Amino acid sequence: MQRTSFSLADISRVAAKLLRHHERHSQDLFNRAPKAIEQAGLLLSTRGSKLWKQALEAGEATGMSPEMVEEALKNFTKHLRGKQLSKIREKQLRHIPPRVRVYPRIIFHVLAGNLFLSGWESMLLGTLLGACNIVRTSSHDPLFPHIWVKALSQADSLFADANFVGWWPHEENALTSALIQSADAVVAFGDNSSVGAIRSLVPLHTRFVGHGHKLSFALVEGSLLDDDTLSCNLARAAAYDFSVYDQQGCLSPRCLFIQGGSEKCIKRFAEYIVDFMCQLSHALPLHKLTLEEAATLAREREEALIEYSATASKTSRDKDFSATTVFSAPSDKFLVMRRSLAPFAPSPVNRVVTIRTFKTTNELKKVLEPYRGLISTFGVSSPRDEWLHLAKTLLVGRVCSLGNMQKPPLGWTHDGYQPLAALVTSMELGELK
Length: 433
Fold this sequence. Notes:
Blueprint: H1 8-45, H2 50-62, H3 66-77, H4 82-93, E1 101-102, E2 106-110, H5 116-128, E3 132-136, H6 144-155, E4 163-166, H7 173-182, E5 185-189, H8 192-199, E6 207-211, E7 215-221, H9 228-243, E8 253-259, H10 263-283, H11 291-317, E9 325-326, E10 335-338, E11 352-358, H12 361-368, E12 375-380, H13 385-393, E13 398-401, E14 425-426
Parallel strand pairs: 2-3, 2-5, 3-4, 5-6, 7-8, 7-12, 8-11, 10-11, 12-13
Antiparallel strand pairs: 1-14, 9-10
Helix pairs in contact: 1-3, 1-4, 1-6, 1-7, 2-3, 2-6, 9-10
């Protein structure tokens, strides 16, 4: 089902139809979901197919280059294998005995428009639980959710009547509330105010999972940069994480921290990053920037150059003071620079790499403490125990290898939640005589 505008009466009919479909086919929806999802992934990843072309067109409408959409499709669909999906489902739910599991009948998804993959995964996970999905799209991206539903429906017609996709203005709380009342669970994406507004409409007895604004950061051990080959490999990995999806998602790093390391090796590492980001700017072109986005990047570069002029003389007197340096050229479609650790602010988006060095983990902790609970991912060069401890202290949701920040496994622990388990209720079954 696909609609772009509807009334309260329409909402009632939609909810009733989905509920009837679930009551009639709940077991089949659950059992056939893994295979249907796998087939949907194959349909979407087949170059030249109708759905593949529609995905590229949807990307163009939202500003993504065709190459970037292809990269996103590749990263997403590679996980969609029926047997693996079944294993993920059982692994996340194994703490709840099957006899007492209560699965949601209808899940209401409120999607953001920054990156379509999070919406697709949320809908996919609902399907994997055998639920019917009601989806409110973002005004920025009204197309991608429809494409996923088309793929799933073509894969298995049983799912054609198990999904409803639509859009309406945020101000129409009556529509949103009506859909929330029909759902057993609500999953919301967006900025903190948007997610908070949805949460305020959800009854206490309805499961709510909110994904608000999050940041991610890259951490590199400076001593590793002494090895030229390793430095080159880490730069390639960092360049990918900072380039793919143009830093539009919560998994995109907003700063690259280096602990220790010689000035010579840090400079060489930064130059490697420039080289690889230059390659990626051709392989995965940056979306066309708005005037505001272009002005933000120009202002960031200008501020860095002014800061460099102001600190250059101090650097010559103090060998421990790291001056601001801009490594990328004005003509590059990205920005790579080095700035001091403090004052700290996350970099802007659209392929901005800000390198900041620190000496001790405690020093980094002080800088990141204001972001405690707001950090999605640490992408690290090595699994240092003190960095893992820092991640726990700051309530970081995920730690992974640099280069994999934008490639989380399906069903990953998003913002501290195991997404399938968060949507399933456990019934307490006492001793029965």
